[in-house]
């Protein structure tokens, strides 16, 4: 199932939307936080396409979510309150409930990025240390000299949502344990990242703390290729039971993806 289908929402009334959290996008049995965030983004997109279409503000530029309680698979209801409607930006408050439990709440600001004409200036910012250069056209065939694809992420059976992406890591390893450089895309060949999937991307990353608790990089291409799945589990000492719940998630969006 594509991410777009897994996060599909239906309009119940002018300010109520429904979704259905799907298996395969979970950590354990709990819907992945980024997946839930992407569904929020779909709700807001639908709301500004329908109820607030006259605002002409299709792009989310800021998002803040607080995860109050764990979500679950199955039906979910999203209630939207229009908090501030303006000419340049509009703000909505969205609440996710399941079985009458309020589970996730958020404030989302929308605007029209394509109409922005404010000041823009170079900052001189660069990634430090710089990641290895990549020939993106060679990633699909895993023939890039500096980047290698993993067959799957560690603990993929438990962290099921990780099976929805492809990942490439530096063949020579990371610069250090506390840094992760990664290329990623959705596993479904026809799927492309959109602005509405940014929450999923932002929350889908290696757990850096595991490098420190284990003493080695369990996400490296070399580690996967030198050890079978059973050997990997033994070396990682059953740490799949560790769970990193999403407590809050913020997005600050500067561009609209093509």
From TrEMBL:
Domain of life: Eukaryota
Domain Acyl-CoA thioesterase-like N-terminal HotDog: 22-110
Coiled-coil segments: none
A family per Pfam: 4HBT_3
Region ranges (Disordered): 118-138
Gene3D superfamilies named among the record's database cross-references: Acyl-CoA thioesterase, double hotdog domain
InterPro entries (UniProt xref): Acyl-CoA_hotdog (IPR042171), HotDog_dom_sf (IPR029069), Sec_Metab_Biosynth-Assoc (IPR052389), TesB_ACOT8-like_N (IPR049449)
Protein's name in the database: Acyl-CoA thioesterase-like N-terminal HotDog domain-containing protein
Protein's organism: Hortaea werneckii
């Amino acid at each position: 199932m594509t991410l777009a289908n897994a996060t599909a929402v239906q309009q119940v009334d002018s300010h109520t939307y429904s979704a259905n959290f799907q298996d395969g996008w979970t950590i354990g049995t709990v819907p992945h936080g980024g997946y839930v965030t992407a569904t929020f983004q779909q709700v807001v997109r639908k709301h500004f396409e329908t109820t607030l279409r006259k605002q002409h503000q299709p792009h989310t530029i800021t998002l803040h979510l607080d995860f109050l309680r764990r979500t679950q698979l199955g039906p979910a209801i999203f209630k939207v309150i229009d908090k501030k409607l303006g000419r340049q930006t509009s703000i909505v408050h969205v609440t996710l409930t399941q079985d009458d439990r309020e589970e996730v709440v958020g404030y989302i600001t929308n605007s029209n990025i394509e109409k922005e004409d404010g000041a823009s200036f170079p900052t001189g910012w660069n990634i430090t240390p710089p990641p290895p250069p990549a020939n993106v056209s060679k990633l699909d065939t895993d023939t890039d000299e500096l980047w290698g694809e993993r067959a799957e992420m560690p603990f993929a059976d438990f962290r099921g949502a990780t099976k929805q992406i492809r990942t490439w890591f530096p063949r020579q390893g990371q610069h250090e344990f506390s840094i992760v450089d990664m290329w990623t895309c959705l596993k479904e060949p026809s799927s492309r990242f959109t602005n509405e999937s940014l929450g999923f991307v932002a929350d889908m990353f290696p757990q850096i703390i595991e490098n420190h608790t284990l003493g080695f990089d369990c996400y490296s291409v070399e580690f996967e290729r030198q050890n079978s799945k059973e050997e990997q589990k033994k070396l990682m000492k059953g740490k799949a039971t560790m769970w990193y719940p999403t407590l809050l998630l913020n997005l600050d969006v500067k561009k609209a993806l093509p």
